[in-house]
Amino acid sequence: MIETPRVLLIDDNPADVALITEASARGKYRSQFHHVVDGESAIAYLRSLGQDTESVRPDLVILDLNLPKVEGEKVLAQFKADPGCRQIPVVVFSSSQSSQEIARCYELGANCYVRKAGDLAGFVAAVRSIEEFWFGSASLPDRIDQQD
Amino acid sequence: MRTGVRIRFGWAAHLIRLNLVGDFVIPDTAAQSKPMRHIPAVEQSAAAGDPLAGEIPAPASTARPLLRLPSPSDWLSTNRHCPCEPRKMAEEELARKVEELARSNRELEQFAFVASHDLQEPLRMVAAYTQLLAEKYRGKLDANADLYIAYASEGALRMQTLIQDLLAFSRVARADTPLREVDSNLALDAALQNLKHFIEQAGALIQRQPLPRVFAERSLLAQVFQNLIGNAIKFRREQPPTVSVQATHFGKDWLFSVRDNGIGIEPEHSETVFAIFQRLHTRAEYPGNGIGLAICKRIVERFHGRIWLESRPGEGSTFQFTLPAAGGETGGAAQ
Description:
The complex is a heterodimer of chains A (148) and B (335). Chain A has helices at 14-25, 39-48, 72-81, 99-107, 120-137, 144-147; strands spanning 6-10, 32-36, 60-63, 90-94, 112-115. By secondary structure, chain A is an alpha/beta fold. Chain B has 335 residues and is an alpha+beta fold. Chain B has three domains: 2-84, no CATH class; 89-174, Helix Hairpins (Orthogonal Bundle); 180-328, Histidine kinase-like ATPase, C-terminal domain (Heat Shock Protein 90, 2-Layer Sandwich), CATH 3.30.565.10. In chain B, the strands form four sheets. In chain B, strands 6-8-9-11-10 form a five-stranded mixed β-sheet. Chain B has a two-stranded antiparallel ribbon with strand order 1-2. A two-stranded antiparallel sheet of chain B has the order 3-4. The termini of chain B are far apart.
């Protein structure tokens, strides 16, 4: 289990962001969320990793698909094409149930796809299971700042 | 004052509907109140395939003709388009209207899909946040507030299921999987597998006979069976439900029937039950949005079949549908 996992949350809907942090607060992981609202800022943030001491390399990325400016799939593709970023797991967290969209996310290298449930209980359960799996069960690559 | 005359016969009436000829009027002095059904002059030109022209003779009491059909030269002289070949024009017009209708249907389909898809996001917010309100503030406001929040929350949840159903309905029309030869036994297997718990829970008895191969799409056909059998069990009486599924020859097609011993349906509802969101019972009596049969109808029609219902209240229902036999297979017993 990681201490205070760092999560880069890419979602333009403040109501969803509030729900995600609310759900996380009900769990045992004290996730720290860095939130960006669109694909452009997500990519800028990822590019600044390692160059800018302010930006912290996330342990996990939670990505929504419906984003303004640069859509989620494109962010995912760029992220997974970048040698410095591609080892960070990306959870696509979106409301789409389209099997084509889901398949495309996996093709682009998403580490998993979780659907945003329509009801509160389902939504909270989904967020907590993401944390439970990635911060509890899974072994993540070492943080760069700890490798040195 | 002028009085309109309704002309009802053959394609002359069709031309009038399509606005290819002008209004037919008679002077009110003629005092002709009944619609004219037979106008010999027009019938003759129609029978001969000639351009429409002629006169309807006035009754002996008046000197003026009751109705005069314009001749082609009249059209030309008044710059109206001359239907020199009226039948051909009517056909072209009809083809154009059919195409227009098909396009408008496609657009409507697209609209239903996009609207229901995009409605889901804001609705998800309403549902989640009314539930969050209920969770965090129940008992902290007053009894009315708790009730209001519960109503808002239930409303949002119901709308979510409606939208899900609308999307499922619209997906049938959007599915572009080609029709091919399908063993309908396998489709029934899949349906029964999906209904397994429901069947066990209701203690239902399913009687099935070997079914034929048909020209269809397996998962959609499975959905037809699932919706029909699911309904048969859901709308049961006190006694344990029995559902029988079989198929018999029906001309070049196969006729499937799903018969139950449930509550039955009044004959006057035998058409309306297939309409989208049509329900015959309150949600408290039987849950559901009234989408299942609408989806069945849409799927069967996509397979170029028909679906109908034979039922008497208290005696159970039999849903029947036709499907084209696979590979021109018209004879032989069901395999």
